[in-house]
Amino acid sequence: MKIRPKRLSEAILRAYLDQALPARELAQVEHDLAQAAAPQAALVRLRRDMEETGQTLSLLTPTDFDRSPALPALKRLQATLATQPRGFIKLHWIKLHWLERILAMFSKSFIKRHQSAVTALTLILLLVVTFSFAPIRAMAGDFLKIFRVREVKVIPVNVEHLENMENNQELSSLLEQFSPETEAVVDGGEPQEVASLSEAAARVDFPIAEATNLPAGAGSLNKIAVLDRSVHQLQLDPDLAEAIFEAAGIEIDLPASLKETPIILTRPAMVLQSWGSEDEAGLRFVQLRSPEIEYPEDLDLNELGVAILQFLGRSEEEAIAQAAAIDWANTLILPIPSDANVTTTEVSIDGAPGTLFLEDDGAANAVMWQKDGLTYMVTGPYAADQILEIAKSVR
Amino acid sequence: MLSDTKLLHLWQAGDQASFETLFLTHYERVYGVLFRLSGNRADAEDLAQQVFLKLYRAPKQIQTQNGQANIAGWLYRVAINAGYNALRRQRRQAAWQEKLSRLWPFDTAAPDPGQQVEQLDAQAKVRQILAMMKPRDAQLLLLRHSGFSYQELAMILNVAPGSIGSLLTRAERAFREKYQRAFPQEGDSV
Fold this sequence. Notes:
The structure holds two protein chains of two kinds. By secondary structure, chain A is α+β, with helices and mostly antiparallel strands. In chain A, about 35% of the residues lie in helices and about 25% in strands. Chain A has two domains: about 10-60, no CATH class; about 90-390, no CATH class. In chain A, the strands form three sheets. Chain A has an eight-stranded antiparallel beta sheet, sandwiched between helices. A six-stranded antiparallel beta sheet of chain A has the order 1-2-11-8-7-4. Chain A has a two-stranded parallel ribbon with strand order 3-12. Chain B is mainly α. Chain B has two domains: about 1-110, RNA polymerase sigma factor, region 2, helix turn helix motif (Rna Polymerase Sigma Factor, Chain: A, Orthogonal Bundle), CATH 1.10.1740; about 110-185, Arc Repressor Mutant, subunit A (Orthogonal Bundle), CATH 1.10.10. Chain B is about 75% helix and about 0% strand. Classes of the chains: A alpha+beta, B mainly alpha.
């Protein structure tokens, strides 16, 4: 019997492999396949291609851990619909995700899970913890300086400027080589749930504050957790770092001591409290001793600050002027990208400097402030005045 | 069990339970498609919620033909568009994140490169290729490998069921060719 090409076309064979043929057609195809070798060979090739492509595409399949059950998702949607008027397109809880990530960023498993898609703001807040300049004391007789966060300075970053850097081949090539070794000296692990604030207090070395004025509807305190201290050290190659700055048109001399002396980041133990349902973005309160960073004494922070500002898109003159207005020794630099849809406002919380983070549509999401060597952050689905009231009630 | 069309009509008449049924019927597959595109749970959940919110806000956007409403087609088309928009945004952000993180590479994720990083890298490559493909081909591959039947694919993409086999073969071939061109050293794996 002569095989008609149309009957055993690739399309038919593919549908056959996918078991997508109607019964009558299936019988015919099986009959035809049994009659000739060529279509059988084509079938084998097609199956091999299909399986190999399928294997590659299966890399994208969610794991069990990544599954999202429908019922909790429906509840989240209903909660949103119940609190927002029609026409309010952007979901409040959606907007809060970046804040949730800020809170979760200290969790090792979170970082592992989201490594490929760490959001802009998560990275920025990682920088909050890491790129923190605020001196408490110089360690007597030591060659290192220690700094602790006392103030936050927001610096807008033009994303287009950074994107344009991609066109600088030399810079791109150098950045490719720039992969400093980071080592976890002390692993803080995952947040450990505790039964009470007094139990949490026993595990940290600072008096735990409480928010005393909670908004109606915040719900009850449903979780208290402690995340133990973590210490990371980073070894930089100052020559390569200088070359990167140079490729970006920025001159800087970094001390050779960076080759020998690691930069050490300490994120002290922190206490996390959350109210309301875990499924929804509710009120969250985080407190910790302000992070510390240790670095070689001969690293000139002001000079580095000027270079960083230039790297972020300022002209040399602007960078020098702006750097002069920043107390680099006490200030944590917080770059906010131009496409983050977040605006920031400097606020005072009981006389302490703080930063209020607002979504572009005006809903307040977070306030972070530093007082007496401690850093506090309140996040929640509340308007600016409400979230500031909560922060001011912290005792 | 009520059909999607019936549920839509009931929902348009104000029956909340019908919307809930539609949500529960389609959510996990919408999420699955979006997870494949975004690569992380939080983003996929955000996007899936946006898709259903859009449905909730404007159920009349779904047109009926011969008395049948193609809700699945609408949902998955909206989902894929939202997913691709997010993917483009993600790639833009990743570019500058990388530059920032290389300048201040204190990211605590750094100490744990290993297998996870390789896996993420492999996933990123697949998404990169999908983003380079013709939209319909990429949609077809994503949906087929999310478990949709030929019948469902035909309905979502608005093509004849008999053409799916041919379209799939073509799309997979295009995927393999682009992948091998982009990553020749890994050509054997596709």
